[in-house]
Amino acid sequence: MKKMVTVKRRALAANEEQAEVLRKRFARSGTLVVNLISSPGSGKTTLLEATVSRLRGELDCAVIEGDVATENDADRIRALGVPAHQILTGGSCHLDARQVERGLEEGGLPVSDILFIENVGNLICPTTYDLGEDFKVVVLSVTEGDDKPVKYPAIFSRAEVAVISKSDLLPHVPFDLDAVRLQVNSLNPDGVVLVVSATTGEGIDGWLELLRERLRGKRRVQG
Ligand SMILES: Nc1nc2c(ncn2[C@@H]2O[C@H](COP(=O)(O)OP(=O)(O)OP(=O)(O)O)[C@@H](O)[C@H]2O)c(=O)[nH]1
Ligand SMILES: [Mg+2]
């Protein structure tokens, strides 16, 4: 047990180093990097499809997709004319910084204004792996139940933005939005909660405005 803990600590320390290399690279290129984390099927790719379609002609976007198997998600993004690279983890439940570095080299992604990294669908494993991102976004769909922030506190306290997705389904499922806001707020008082439906477009403007503001902020700080 002790040996396992030591190995995990070493892996995390090595990941931190690699993430810093990535962070410097993204600082040089002025790229805003967003790490999207959720359980499988919460709507990450659908949100990205809605996002990159709307930002077309305004900002250059690129996407790294992380999955255990298939190129499905990268294909969905590429179908919209946006560069995407699929990383296959072959079983691992999260992406790490080394995979992202390699993905950038091998995927031939152009330098972009915003790089979205869609992590492997999982609310636990990706939480502690820094990918050199500017911020993490946790996506929680209304069909998953309104107790998830308190059941998975680590990701909800680390993610600067919580997107409550599939809001169009709210009339059909028991989901107490106020209770979720309170849970997220108690775990992360500075966190932002957005309520979004990628299907109807509800809340998408606020999400896009947040991305624009974060990109402006990053470039202002760097001068
Ligand atoms: N009603 C509704 N369905 C949605 C919405 N967003 C996504 N979906 C559906 O939810 C399912 C999963 O969506 P994805 O975008 O593939 O979810 P994901 O989080 O990328 O899934 P993984 O990559 O497998 O973890 C699909 O059937 C989508 O059509 C939404 O806003 N409203
Ligand atoms: Mg997906």
Report on this structure:
The chain is an alpha/beta fold. It is built from 8 helices and 7 strands; from the N terminus they run H-E-H-E-H-E-H-E-E-H-H-E-H-E-H. The protein has a 7-stranded parallel β-sheet, sandwiched between helices. Strand 6, helix 7 and strand 7 form a beta-alpha-beta unit. Helix 1 packs across helix 4. It is globular. The model has no long low-confidence stretch (mean pLDDT 96). Bound molecules: guanosine-5'-triphosphate and magnesium ion.
Question: Key terms for this structure?
Answer:
alpha/beta; seven-stranded parallel beta sheet; 8 helices; binds magnesium ion
- The whole-angstrom Rg is 17 Å
Count the strands?
7
End-to-end CA span: 48 Å
Structural class designation: alpha/beta
Q: Spatial order of the strands in the main sheet?
A: 3-2-4-1-5-6-7
Number of helices: 8
Shape: globular
Bound molecules: guanosine-5'-triphosphate, magnesium ion
Can you give the helix content as a percent range?
40-55%
Low-confidence stretches: none
Question: What is the strand content?
Answer: 15-25%
Mean pLDDT: 96
Q: Give the SSE order as H and E letters.
A: HEHEHEHEEHHEHEH
Report the sheet with the most strands, covering strand number, pairing sense and barrel closure. 7 strands, parallel
Layout of strands and helices, then pairs:
Blueprint: H1 2-29, E1 32-38, H2 44-55, E2 61-67, H3 72-78, E3 84-88, H4 97-107, E4 114-118, E5 135-141, H5 148-151, H6 153-158, E6 161-165, H7 177-187, E7 192-195, H8 204-222
Parallel strand pairs: 1-4, 1-5, 2-3, 2-4, 5-6, 6-7
The structure holds guanosine-5'-triphosphate (GTP) and magnesium ion.
Residues 38, 40-46, 73, 121, 165-166, 168-169, 197-199 line the site of guanosine-5'-triphosphate.
